[in-house]
Amino acid sequence: MSEGVIEVAGLRKEYPSKLGRPPIIALDGIDFQVGAGELFGLLGPNGAGKTTTVKILLGLTKATSGNAGIHGFPVSNPESRRRVGYLPEGHKIPNYLTARQTLSIFGRMSGMSTSDIVARTGELLERVRLSQWIDVRVKKFSKGMTQRLGLACALVHKPDVLLLDEPTDGVDPVGRREIRDLLRDEAKTNGTTVLLNSHLLSEIELTCDKVAMLRRGKVAAFGSIEELTRKTEKYKMVASPIDDALVAAFRNSGAEVERVNGHLELSVNDVAHLNALVDQLRAGGVMLSELAPLRSTLEDVFVDLIKAPEVQP
Amino acid sequence: MKVLVANIEDVMREAAARWTLLAYFTISTLFILIFAFAVNLDIVEGSLAGAKLFGNDVQMHGQSSISIDALVGYVESGLVGFLFLFWPFIAIFATAHLVPRMMEKGTVDLYLSRPVGRVKLLLSRYLAGLLLAGSNIAYLIGAMWLIVVWKTHVAHPRFFVGALIIFFFVASLMAFAFLIGVVTSSTAVSIMMTYFLFLLGYPLVAHDRFAAAVNAEWKAAIIQGLYWIVPKSSEILGAVVAIVSEKNLPRQLSAGLTPAPFLSTAIFAIACLMLASWLFQRKEF
């Protein structure tokens, strides 16, 4: 394997079934690497194997075959978790602890000294807007506050790698944006590698540089957001007035035309074709106010991928 | 060491937040106060000339005086005997949740995602639980010893040996509670099974008689096997009373002072901890 901070190769996980049924295959030989400072998203429908992948990376569950490692240590070695911060989905921080005590206990478990913990606690709770709640028990926290404390808990020992499972779950839009900014800042300033597992495609699209889409235990798509949400030959045209005759003329030229919320969406053959349509529009005295290429969203890519029939080897 | 300190902090904070710590020490303090105020002794030249219990005169059985040293031996052996019968219930009740609570979904991930081996995590938690139970036994026995010294001016260090034996026995039961906690993830089951094991040790002292009374060899083998596996509640109770009272108890109790019950109970505890560690290591979350 090369220099990925997180390295996964041929990872397979089978869960045994009862009554002689065939085992359930949660992961079917997945491979990916995440480099230092990358913001990496793991996507997939329920049961695709995202959480299983994260759990294997943390040694919470064991792979049936294949390799996984962090910082060159196999995940079976607790040292692989020395510089890893983890925020599990639906985590339950013991509710009898205060925010300060939570960071103290989990910081110490990560090998931090008391003075380091004290110094880090104030700074971190300030970052996640919990400094006013430092000595309040977690049982009095809202869902969003618990989530932000979980994030602080994952960050307490200044990890190089962050594994986050639905980090914005239950967080309000402002809080989400703050978490996004915090993750981007961690990656940019400290070179932290972030692996984000989320159902919220827009969150992934706004946060991550690269994604892997899992489908039935396999990596169905892998690449940067730019690559996956590639440009199409579709354009948004805002012009006025556009009558039916003009739309018919566009269609006659071979373009596909749709009226969407007061504007047109055009699918053209190439740029020359687009320019010809614009000439036609201008010749008719129509005022063009906007013409922009359309990209497919991550959601479009995801839905297409999920709906596509599976190719048998 | 940091892992151990973190676990101790966690366990103590939980005990404090859930009122376990307060209840634990309140019960102990009540016990100490009752003992302190209930007993009034009239000591004349190193011998007990009269005694009052809850304000009532205690019959001296025709004796005009009793050696105060012997009396302290009786009182202290009675106390440790009572505590041996009673304290394991409270200690297990206060600590049996430590593993099931840690293994709850959403919580276990937080602990296991730290750079700590699972065996180390489990054993640190066990030691933290022992510290909780042990601090209470030390408080109770220490306070009672001071009261005895204050009232009689007789100091028997062997009273503390009694405390150590109770602690040892609680440690063996707690090892079993941890094993059940790892297997079932249930606090209620851990408590029930551990209480059952503790009580089972008493009738099993008559294992030879039970084995002789059954009609099949395999049944006798099971009874004898159980006897050797289960912690020896009855023998260790006899031993702790004999050790604390020293020479003043009947010979049959002193005869219980062999290392075998202690050794087999220690082996049981170590085996439980090893099995719990192995299972916890293999467990998938």
Which two chains form the greatest contact, residue counts included? A-B, 34 and 28 residues
Helix content of chain B: over 70%
Second-tier CATH architecture of the largest domain in chain A:
3-Layer(aba) Sandwich
Total number of domains of chain A: 2
Give the averaged pLDDT of chain A, no decimals: 87
The helix/strand order of chain A is EEEHEEEHHHEHEHEEHEHEEHEH
Q: Determine the structural class of chain A based on helices, strands and strand pairing.
A: alpha/beta
Separate helix tally of chain A: 10
Could you tell me the CATH topology label of the largest domain in chain A. Answer: Rossmann fold
Q: Could you say which overall geometry of chain B the principal axes of the C-alpha atoms support? A: globular
Characterize the biggest β-sheet of chain A: 6 strands, mixed
Spell the H/E element sequence of chain B: HHEEEEHHHHHHHHHHH
Query: Strand tally of chain B, please?
Result: 4
Side-by-side strand order of the widest sheet of chain A: 6-7-8-3-9-10
Quaternary structure type: heterodimer
Q: What descriptive keywords fit this protein?
A:
heterodimer; A: 313 residues; alpha/beta; Rossmann fold; Alpha-Beta Plaits; 2 domains; six-stranded mixed β-sheet; four-stranded antiparallel β-sheet; 29% strand; B: 285 residues; mainly alpha; 73% helix; globular
Descriptive account of the structure:
The complex is a heterodimer of chains A (313) and B (285). Helix content of chain A is 34%, strand content 29%. Chain A is α/β, with parallel strands linked by helices. Chain A has two domains: 6-227, 3-Layer(aba) Sandwich (Rossmann fold); 231-295, Alpha-Beta Plaits (2-Layer Sandwich), CATH 3.30.70. Chain A has a six-stranded mixed beta sheet, with helices on both faces. In chain A, strands 2-1-4-5 form a four-stranded antiparallel beta sheet, covered by helices on one side. Chain A has a four-stranded antiparallel beta sheet with strand order 12-13-11-14, covered by helices on one side. In chain A, helix 2 (99-109) packs across helix 3. Chain A is globular. The model of chain A has no long low-confidence stretch (mean pLDDT 87). Chain B has one domain. Chain B has helices spanning 2-17, 20-38, 68-95, 98-102, 108-112, 118-152, 158-184, 187-200, 207-213, 217-229, 233-245, 251-254, 260-282, and strands spanning 39-44, 47-53, 56-57, 66-67. In chain B, strands 1, 2, 3 and 4 form a four-stranded antiparallel beta sheet that branches. In chain B, helix 3 (68-95) runs antiparallel to helix 11. The mean pLDDT of chain B is 86.
